[in-house]
Amino acid sequence: MQNRTAYSGGDSPAPEDLETRLTVELASVISAARRRATRDGDRQVDTAHLLHGLLESDPAVRAAFDGGPQVARLLGYLVQRSIGYGLQWHGTVEDSGAVPVVAEGAVPGWSPAAAAALDGALDRAHARYATRAGCLDLLAALVDDPESRAVEVLRRASVDTARLAHRLDGERPGQD
After folding, report:
1. How far apart are CA 51 and CA 49, in angstroms?
2. Per its UniProt record, what InterPro entries does this chain match (predicted)?
3. In a 3-state reduction of DSSP, which class is residue 158?
4. Of 3.20.20.70, 3.30.1330.90, 1.10.1780.10, 3.30.470.20, which CATH number belongs to 15-170?
5. What is the SS3 assignment for 9?
6. 17: enclosing H helix or E strand
7. Taking the model in full, what pTM does it have?
8. What are the extents of the domains in the chain?
9. pLDDT tens digits, 27-86
10. Could you tell me which of 51, 70, 52 has the C-alpha nearest to residue 121?
11. pLDDT per position as a tens digit, 107-165
């Protein structure tokens, strides 16, 4: 697994530049995560919002779980977020501590861990010489932060995150 760095004010892409660095599918996932955070009354998009969007939107992400019952279990946990599971997160900022602290507003409306995951997805795409980050890039970056909300949900659904990370590192998607 690669070490990820969080966005800092100086090197984060401008919002309009960011769209040119994401596949259409990943841009759609991010839009869905923003809508979900707003609908749920959350202050920020966090890694669980991103994971939810990935699972709902991308067949390649679902396939990364080897077709097991884990996807249904994951979606079940994520759907329960606003009515039970995950209520302890309501009104709090996700900062797992696994990434360097970022300045407030470095990525407006995003938790530090979610911003770091997006940065990690862009790094992963860059490492394979792709012009755009895709959904599997973001999933791999989410799994890289063992203290994130997304990984907490994965573990609750009995996903072996180390095995998933290894599988994702072996699958360098050809998206660009």
Report:
1. 6
2. Clp_N_dom_sf
3. coil
4. 1.10.1780.10
5. coil
6. helix 15-19
7. 0.79
8. 15-170
9. 999 999 999 888 878 888 999 999 999 999 999 999 998 766 788 888 888 877 654 445
10. 51
11. 678 999 999 999 999 999 999 999 999 999 999 999 999 999 999 889 888 899 999 99
